[in-house]
């Protein structure tokens, strides 16, 4: 190990504030302090590492790598762990798909993740669910850091630069290249040290209890329900106006989804959104017309073209009663641009509330959306609670999912804002 690598294994104290780096150039973190561990790909090795991690000390750094853009779904293709007394582990969840025993062994301990919302779904799919967690990305936001990517945070707070370049790799590749494994191991190398520095920063700012409320909400949140009408998220949908064309988008989307699931490919690798929209707009009646459209070129086989044409034909044959409507009825208030015409008083409330929440967020040095989500503000202003007093507003905010610290920081200013429309 080089002198630089040995030095990089020793964390440095955090800067006195959440501003940008002002000291010397960051030290490159070139290799994990114990080297790159072998990938765990069998039950015997997994059992040994579970025992080692259960006997470790302190929080557990956790990360996962997916193959977004390459494979169907968002499953994990590598799970990385690090804990004092246990070192670093790299686990292949393809070879070891059931990690519930590992999850149970680690559940009593705090898990440290960066951008936990991205990794928790795929970890849960493998059987790993935290009891407690610390999200270093969210901690950075609450502490007022302008940039909260892992590399930037490690550099700003700890003074080290992480290797970049493999985050968008196809992690379903087997065997995984050694440089990728080194990159993955480094992602958890200093995660606990970053957590400790951010905890101290939040404590000094008087925000640690707020962060703990946020982390508890993430850890206890149920899995997100499936999206309704996911086909409506097709890029370029705004170009499709007629209901039968919308039906073609829907049929093509579901046909693509089935093929992608069967072949374990990202849907975009099976057929692009642009091709779906082009076919829906043209409504081709034969293979020749379909093949002439963008995205259905000569490299696409006849059998596949027939499958896409069959989807368009299904849409063409649907009775009018089965055609989708141009847009879904929104479950919440209308777009804010329409408020002035639909309800001028609500528009006045929204303007006052947005201004007040933004000002309070600036005072607290945190993003406005972390103080109170824009959707919460809109819903409260569109249908204010009966009475409009602070207790009614507190109850309404709780019903909309706001945390207690958010309620404490915003109830008074929202009460004044809601009165602006009376």
Automatic annotation (TrEMBL):
InterPro entries linked: 3'-5'_exonuclease_dom, Exo_C, HRDC-like_sf, HRDC_dom, HRDC_dom_sf, RNase_D-like, RNaseH-like_sf, RNaseH_sf
SUPFAM superfamilies associated with the record: HRDC-like (SSF47819), Ribonuclease H-like (SSF53098)
Residue ranges with Low complexity bias: 1-10
MF GO annotations: 3'-5' exonuclease activity; nucleic acid binding; nucleotide binding
Residue ranges, annotated region (Disordered): 1-33, 317-341
Residue span, HRDC domain: 242-322
Pfam family membership, one: DNA_pol_A_exo1
Composition bias type Pro residues, residue spans: 11-29
One Gene Ontology term from the biological process aspect of the record: nucleobase-containing compound metabolic process
Protein name: Ribonuclease D
């Amino acid at each position: 190990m080089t002198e630089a690598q040995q030095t990089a294994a020793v964390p440095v104290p955090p800067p006195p504030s959440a501003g940008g780096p002002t000291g010397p150039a960051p030290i490159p973190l070139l290799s994990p302090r114990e080297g790159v561990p072998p990938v765990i790909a069998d039950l015997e090795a997994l059992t040994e590492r579970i025992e080692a991690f259960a006997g470790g000390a302190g929080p557990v750094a956790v990360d996962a790598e997916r193959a977004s853009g390459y494979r169907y779904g968002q499953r994990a293709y590598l799970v990385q762990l690090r804990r004092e007394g246990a070192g670093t582990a790299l686990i292949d969840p393809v070879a070891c798909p059931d990690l519930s025993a590992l999850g149970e062994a680690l559940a009593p301990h705090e898990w440290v993740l960066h951008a936990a919302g991205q990794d928790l779904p795929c970890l849960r799919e493998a059987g790993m669910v935290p009891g407690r967690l610390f999200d270093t990305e969210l901690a950075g936001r609450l502490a007022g850091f302008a940039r909260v990517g892992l590399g930037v945070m490690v550099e700003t707070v700890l003074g080290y630069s992480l290797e970049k370049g493999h985050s968008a790799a196809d992690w379903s590749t087997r065997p995984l290249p050694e440089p990728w494994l080194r990159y993955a191991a480094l992602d958890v190398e200093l995660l606990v040290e970053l957590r400790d520095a951010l905890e101290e920063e939040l404590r000094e700012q008087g925000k640690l209890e707020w962060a703990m409320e946020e982390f508890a909400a993430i850890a206890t949140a149920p899995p997100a329900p499936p999206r309704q009408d996911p086909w409506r998220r097709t890029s370029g949908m705004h170009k499709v106006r007629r209901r039968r064309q919308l039906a073609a988008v829907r049929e093509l989307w579901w046909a693509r989804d089935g093929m992608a699931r069967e072949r374990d490919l990202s849907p975009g690798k099976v057929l692009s959104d642009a091709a779906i929209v082009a076919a829906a707009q043209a409504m081709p009646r034969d293979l020749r017309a379909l093949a002439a459209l963008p995205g259905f070129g000569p490299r696409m086989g006849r059998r596949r073209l027939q499958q896409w044409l069959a989807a368009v034909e299904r849409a063409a044959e649907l009775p009018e009663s089965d055609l989708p409507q141009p847009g879904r009825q929104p479950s919440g208030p209308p777009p804010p641009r329409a408020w002035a015409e639909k309800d001028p008083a609500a528009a006045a409330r929204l303007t006052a509330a947005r201004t007040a929440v933004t000002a309070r967020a600036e005072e607290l040095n945190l993003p406005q959306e972390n103080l109170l989500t824009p959707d919460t503000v809109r819903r409260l202003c569109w249908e204010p609670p009966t009475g409009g007093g602070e207790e009614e507003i507190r109850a309404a905010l709780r019903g909309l999912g706001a945390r207690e610290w958010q309620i404490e920081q915003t109830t008074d200013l929202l009460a004044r804002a809601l009165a602006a429309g009376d």
